[in-house]
């Protein structure tokens, strides 16, 4: 068969036949499985029950990965991956401008486990090279980043890592597998907060990692002890959601581009962050490594206040998290980055006028009208 499109992979890859001839994968609710006459030991915490396998088969195909693991949250995927690959005495480099939950995890837990780290003050390649130490094991990036949509050159990161025997890890949540496949550019491990675009309906908390088989096996070894696996029912819901991922993300890309263009011309908006805009500093790199620019738009307003603006919105809902079919908005300084110090927020460009808009699949004109009326 010829190479299938992502739309087809989303719908058909990984299905497990139903003995009753139903077209959906059954929900295998068992947490206890027989073991006689087989070498296989099935157990949800071992990441190997049927519904978990179905989701990973679909995601691995979408990300061009050999294998993967599905977790109970994005942070479970991130923490399990890093604790599996790092030991006391190791060093890791983090790009500037990561998701606030990741930053909080690093600051709260790395020092007490003897893991050293460098958080870059800028994301220039020379700064990354200067930060590499003899004990550096991982370079960790987000692209696009949360919430300022910073774009990192994935091929350049991969080249640096491969030339120095360092692992490369990316949080690919904002892009989704539809818009960006980092493994194509040589990145070793791809992470997702599957709560966002992969779930897409604001009703699932999950995370995923995709990589080559040897790394997945190593990560699984530690992860089964940490216990962050996902149950069969949530895996079934995730498989259901992934079937529409391509069409959802396609519409979100289209809406976000038009909303970014609208906001960039509005007199009460001082700055717009969206890689689909030619003036975005990462626009050319994004064009090279992304097939769509994503459904996330961040912007700064001068009037009204971010509180009043959000209260006036009708269709767009002030809400935490992102990636759902409905459009939502939040102030990172009050949500994802609220635990950071004032100095750290300023250093990372998170000011009190910044809003992060997760664009849904609604009619584009209706969304523009809602934003317009809220600024009057």
From the structure above, extract its key features.
7-stranded mixed beta sheet, 376 residues, 12 strands, Aspartate Aminotransferase, domain 2, 5-stranded mixed beta sheet, Aspartate Aminotransferase, domain 1, 2 domains, alpha/beta, globular
Brief summary:
The chain has 376 residues and is an alpha/beta fold. Helix content is 37%, strand content 15%.
Describe the structure.
The chain is α/β, with parallel strands linked by helices and 376 residues long. It has 2 domains: 237 residues, Type I PLP-dependent aspartate aminotransferase-like (Major domain) (Aspartate Aminotransferase, domain 2); 129 residues, Aspartate Aminotransferase, domain 1 (Alpha-Beta Complex). The protein has 14 helices and 12 strands. It has a 7-stranded mixed beta sheet, with helices on both faces. Strands 8-9-12-11-10 form a 5-stranded mixed beta sheet, covered by helices on one side. Helix 7 links the parallel strand 5 and strand 6. The longest helix has 20 residues. The N and C termini lie far apart (55 Å). The model has no long low-confidence stretch (mean pLDDT 95).
